[in-house]
Structures are given as structure tokens and as C-alpha cells.
Automatic annotation (TrEMBL):
The chain crosses the membrane at residues 31-53. Keywords: Membrane, Transmembrane, Transmembrane helix. This is ABC transporter permease.
Length: 59
């Protein structure tokens, strides 16, 4: 959600300042990127929790 809101707020500003570039991001790419970031965050959280639980149970 933050990615989509950020893109909708930043892309018009960037398009105005850099007229020689196009900033059209398809919805499918945005949804895929959001899903990928969500999955990576989930995996990173699970990995960190597993390390923390392992340290806690050893102590």
C-alpha cells in the first residue's frame, strides 16, 4: 500500500521535473512489486523470529 501511495504522490512530481523521461508504471508491475515486497518482508520476519527464538530457548 505504501508503494502505491508513494508512486501516486512522487511520480507526477518527478515527471514535471524530468520531462525527458516517462514514468508510466503498469498496474500489474505495481501489484507484482507489492506482492514481492510483502513476501520478502514475511520471510525476513520469520527468519529473524527463528533466530531470536533459538537464542531465547538456549538461554
Amino acid at each position: 500500500a505504501v508503494l502505491v501511495v508513494g508512486a501516486h504522490m512522487l511520480l507526477p512530481v518527478m515527471a514535471e521535473s524530468m520531462t525527458f523521461l516517462t514514468f508510466a508504471i503498469p498496474t500489474t508491475v505495481m501489484l507484482g512489486m507489492s506482492g514481492l515486497l510483502l513476501l520478502l518482508g514475511l520471510l525476513l520476519g520469520l527468519f529473524g523470529s527463528a533466530i531470536a527464538m533459538g537464542r531465547y530457548l538456549k538461554a
